[in-house]
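User: Good morning. I'm curious how adenosine-5'-triphosphate would be positioned relative to this chain. Could you predict the structure with it bound?
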Amino acid sequence: AELPAGALALEINDITFGYNADEPVLQNLSLQLAAGRVLGILGRTGSGKTTLARLLLRLYDVQQGEILLGGVPLRQTRLRGLRQHIGMVTQDVQLFHASVRDNLTYFDRAIDDTHILKVLTELGLASWYQSLPAGLDTILGSDGEGLSAGEAQLLAFSRVFLSNPGLIIMDEASSRLDPATEQLIEKAVDTLLHERTGIIIAHRLSTIQRADDILIIEDGHLLEYGPRAQL
Ligand code: ATP
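Assistant: Good morning! Here's the predicted structure, ligand included:
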């Protein structure tokens, strides 16, 4: 089945999952996230936050229960279609030895340069872009060699923004960036989440304040879940 365009609602119905069937990592987890809302997920290391993100991307299928995205059960989606609708931003940014343009578009020639430049500007990379010797044709080193951590992160955001997904999943870095970069990232996150559904595996206080709903997981169980204002 095809997923609808635009922000995607998420419904998780009583899912249980373990990498080994007899060792559940997530147990009887349920939640509903309306289209356009932002969910912050908190929990100790090993509580199952990343596992939940992997289930949404269908890197694994749940053993029990059901996940629906945009009203469509994940099991009925084509993997390729699904992953075009979900943008994932993690702490380690995957950049490759190719032009800035190709890094941002994954070689999709349908995305024109004007659009790319607009996105770079919106996400705070205008002055970085102006410093490039060959503009969008500038070749990046592999693994983001030559870029600061903040620039690499903002490029990852730009890439996700260009792919225009209906759901964004962010696994935030807990390491501190300098205050100016931090501020740029904060602003970029706002731009990215505008009119999209978002899930943030949260490590920063500022992100938790941005979330509409909060889920606290402990050992794979839902500990608390609801609108942020009520927790
Ligand atoms: P962190 O905050 O450290 O990223 P997390 O809350 O994201 O932790 P998960 O990475 O989802 O936690 O891990 C949950 C549990 O699943 C842990 O006990 C972990 O050891 C286990 N686990 C994670 N990935 C695998 C895997 N590929 N195979 C087997 N067990 C795994």
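The chain has one domain: 10-230. Residues 10-230 form a domain with the Rossmann fold fold (CATH 3.40.50.300).
Let me know if you'd like a different ligand tried.
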